[in-house]
UniProtKB/TrEMBL annotation:
<protein>
    <submittedName>
        <fullName>Putative heavy metal tolerance protein</fullName>
    </submittedName>
</protein>
<keyword id="KW-1133">Transmembrane helix</keyword>
<dbReference type="GO" id="GO:0140359">
    <property type="term" value="F:ABC-type transporter activity"/>
</dbReference>
<dbReference type="InterPro" id="IPR039421">
    <property type="entry name" value="Type_1_exporter"/>
</dbReference>
<feature type="domain" description="ABC transporter">
    <location>
        <begin position="84"/>
        <end position="332"/>
    </location>
</feature>
<keyword id="KW-0472">Membrane</keyword>
<dbReference type="Pfam" id="PF00005">
    <property type="entry name" value="ABC_tran"/>
</dbReference>
<dbReference type="InterPro" id="IPR027417">
    <property type="entry name" value="P-loop_NTPase"/>
</dbReference>
<dbReference type="Pfam" id="PF00664">
    <property type="entry name" value="ABC_membrane"/>
</dbReference>
<dbReference type="InterPro" id="IPR017871">
    <property type="entry name" value="ABC_transporter-like_CS"/>
</dbReference>
<feature type="domain" description="ABC transmembrane type-1">
    <location>
        <begin position="28"/>
        <end position="130"/>
    </location>
</feature>
<keyword id="KW-0812">Transmembrane</keyword>
<dbReference type="GO" id="GO:0005524">
    <property type="term" value="F:ATP binding"/>
</dbReference>
<dbReference type="GO" id="GO:0016887">
    <property type="term" value="F:ATP hydrolysis activity"/>
</dbReference>
<dbReference type="InterPro" id="IPR036640">
    <property type="entry name" value="ABC1_TM_sf"/>
</dbReference>
<dbReference type="GO" id="GO:0005774">
    <property type="term" value="C:vacuolar membrane"/>
</dbReference>
<dbReference type="InterPro" id="IPR011527">
    <property type="entry name" value="ABC1_TM_dom"/>
</dbReference>
Length: 344
C-alpha cells in the first residue's frame, strides 16, 4: 500500500514542479515581452493567464499535501489496528499464563519499530529538493560576478575579485534546466557561443549530444527554424541542443543544471558516457547539479550541500560507506524507484 501511494505521490510531485515552472515561465515571458503586451492592451489577459497558472500550481500543491496526509493516515490506521489486535492477543495469553509481561512489552516494542522505515517515503522529496535548491544557488553565483564579504571564491587558483566578469563567462559554459533558443536556425543557435567553429565541429558536437540524427530527420536539417524560445522542439531536443552548444563554446568549466532531466534513460546514458570519457568531459571541469543521484555515481568528487554548508565530500562509494546524508538519500531513492545504479 505504501509503495503504491508513494508512486502516486511521485507523479503528483512532478506535476507540482511542472506547474511551478510553467507559472515562472509565464511570468518571465510577460515581463520580457512587456512592450508587446502594452501595444495590444493585453495586461488583463496576461494577468488572467498568470492567475490561472498560480491556481494550477496551488491545486497541484494541494494534491501533494493531501496525498501525504492520506498516506500517513492509512499507515497509522493499518499499524494501530494491527498493534491493537496483537496487544489484545498478547494480553489474553499473559492473562492465561502462556506468556509473561516481558514478552508483552517486547512484542509491542517490535511492532512500533516496524513503522519507522515507512517515514522515508514522506521525507524523500523534501530532502532531494533541498539539495537541488542548494546546488542551484551555487550556480547563481556565476551568472553575475560573485561578490563575497568574508569568504573567497577562486577559479583555477584566481580570486574572482581580480578577474573581469567577461573572463569568467568566457571560460564557463552553462547548460540550464530551461534552455532558451533564438527564433533562428539550429545552426545559428548551435554556433551562438562560438561563431568561428566549422560545420564539421558542429556535427561532431551534435553526435556527442545524441541530436545529430534527429536534426537530419527534419525537412530543413540544420537550417530548421526552432521557433520562439525553441517552441518547435521538444524539451529533450532543446536540452541536447543546449549541451552541443555548450560543447562548441569550448569552456574550461561546464555547469550542468539538471541537464538531462527531460531525456529518456538510453539517451541519458549515452550523454553520461560523453561526460565521463568523451568530448564533453575531455580536459574540462564538470560541475553537475543533479536530482537523480544515479547521474553522478561516476563523478570524481561528490559534494553534499545542506543549509548552505558542505556536509559531505567524496566519491560515490566513499559516501555510501560513510553512511551519512548522501547514503540516506541514495537509500531513499532505492526504496522509491528501485536500484538507482540500474540507471547509471
Amino acid at each position: 500500500m505504501t509503495i503504491n501511494m508513494a508512486a502516486t505521490r511521485a507523479d503528483d510531485r512532478r506535476l507540482m514542479v511542472n506547474c511551478d515552472r510553467e507559472e515562472e515561465a509565464i511570468k518571465n515571458e510577460s515581463i520580457s515581452s512587456y512592450e508587446t503586451v502594452k501595444y495590444f492592451n493585453a495586461e488583463k489577459y496576461e494577468l488572467e493567464r498568470y492567475v490561472d497558472a498560480i491556481k494550477a500550481y496551488q491545486k497541484a500543491e494541494y494534491k501533494v499535501t493531501w496525498g501525504m496526509n492520506m498516506m500517513n493516515i492509512c499507515q497509522a490506521l493499518v499499524f494501530q489496528t494491527g498493534l491493537l489486535a496483537i496487544m489484545t492477543l498478547a494480553a489474553y495469553e499473559v492473562a492465561h499464563g502462556k506468556r509473561d509481561v516481558g514478552d508483552f512489552v517486547t512484542i509491542t516494542t517490535y511492532m512500533n519499530q516496524l513503522q519507522g522505515p515507512l517515514n522515508f517515503f514522506g521525507t524523500f522529496y523534501r530532502t532531494v529538493q533541498q539539495a537541488l535548491v542548494s546546488g542551484e544557488r551555487l550556480l547563481e553565483l556565476f551568472k553575475v560576478k560573485p561578490t563575497v564579504v568574508d569568504r573567497v571564491i577562486e577559479i583555477d587558483g584566481h580570486d574572482v575579485k581580480d578577474v573581469t566578469i567577461d573572463s569568467v563567462r568566457r571560460h564557463i559554459g552553462v547548460v540550464p534546466q530551461d534552455t532558451a533558443l533564438f527564433n533562428e536556425s539550429l545552426m545559428y543557435n548551435l554556433k551562438y557561443g562560438n561563431p568561428s567553429v566549422s560545420d564539421e565541429e558542429v556535427y561532431e558536437a551534435c553526435r556527442a549530444a545524441s541530436i545529430h540524427d534527429r536534426i537530419l530527420s527534419f525537412q530543413d536539417g540544420y537550417d530548421t527554424k526552432v521557433g520562439e524560445r525553441g517552441l518547435r522542439l521538444s524539451g529533450g531536443e532543446k536540452q541536447r541542443v543546449a549541451i552541443a552548444r555548450t560543447m562548441l563554446k569550448k569552456p574550461k568549466i561546464i555547469m550542468l543544471d539538471e541537464a538531462t532531466s527531460a531525456l529518456d534513460s538510453e539517451t541519458e546514458q549515452q550523454i553520461q558516457s560523453e561526460l565521463i570519457t568523451g568530448q564533453l568531459g575531455n580536459d574540462r571541469t564538470l560541475l553537475i547539479i543533479a536530482h537523480r543521484l544515479s547521474t553522478i555515481t561516476h563523478a570524481d568528487q561528490i559534494i553534499v550541500l545542506h543549509a548552505g554548508e558542505i556536509v559531505e565530500r567524496g566519491t560515490h562509494s566513499e559516501l555510501l560507506a560513510a553512511g551519512g546524508k548522501y547514503a540516506s538519500m541514495w537509500e531513499k531513492q532505492h526504496l522509491v524507484f528501485g536500484d538507482p545504479s540500474e540507471h547509471a
